[in-house]
Amino acid sequence: AILAGRYAPGERLPPQRALAAELEVNMASVREALKRLEQLRLVEVRHGDATRVLDWRRSGGLEALALVGSVDATVLGPLFEARRLLLAESARLAASRRSVAQAEALVAAAAEFAAAPDARSRQLADWTFMAAVVEAAGNLVFQLIMNSVRELYVAHADRFAAIVARPDELAPLYRAAAAAIADAEPDAAAAAVAALAAAQEARMAEADAS
Fold it and tell me: Bridge-partner residues for 53, per DSSP?
């Protein structure tokens, strides 16, 4: 409700008893939920005062992504832009830092995408590939960002199905990215992954326009 704008920044939440009645839960559940909202920096709890809603776009962290109820244009555009930039820089780092085993895993993941029998399998192969790129980059913060994105991705997998449309066109891009990382070519790796991510963005835009 907070993320959807039902409660505006600065607005007081209803008393706990009213929330319990509205949501048909007990008071203990409401108290635990408010603690979690405070941890997520979606509300501010002041002793002796009402719980007030924060502007989550300014105070919240990536954890808020997992709570997004719908993935509309206001979320989708920034999400895929950030994804493309993060993956490209991850690929650049991965080309310099990857182990032999990580390079082999990326080549295998690219082949797995090409051989995937259906759209759901291709989505899983795509996630496996991109997660492997970020892991090979060796940047903890990038890894944590991917963990947060995964929660949103898993919850709305059908919404993102278009990113693996026309797989015959995408498969060479996965192979090129894996090869550049395996060959330790940072600029080529970044360009290849950026091209792949941009192609996936275009597929999402086409699906939304149709």
Answer: 43
The residue written with tokens 């808020």 in the block is 64
Which residue's entry shows tokens 């060479």?
172
Alpha carbons 74 and 69: distance in angstroms, whole number: 12
Q: What is the pLDDT of residues 20-32, one digit of tens each?
A: 999 999 999 999 9
**Beta strand spans in the chain (E):** 43-44, 52-53
d(CA 55, CA 3): 9
Pair 127, 151: CB distance under 8 Å: no
Three-class SS of 52-102: EECCHHHHCCHHHHHHCCCCCHHHHHHHHHHHHHHHHHHHHHHHHHCCHHH
pLDDT per position as a tens digit, 144-182: 989 888 877 877 788 889 999 999 999 999 999 999 999
Residues 134, 138, 139: CA angle, nearest 5 degrees: 80
pTM strictly above 0.70: yes
The span from the CA of 67 to the CA of 164, in Å, is 24
Locate 163 and state its tokens.
């990113």
Helix (H, G, I), strand (E, B) or coil at 204: helix
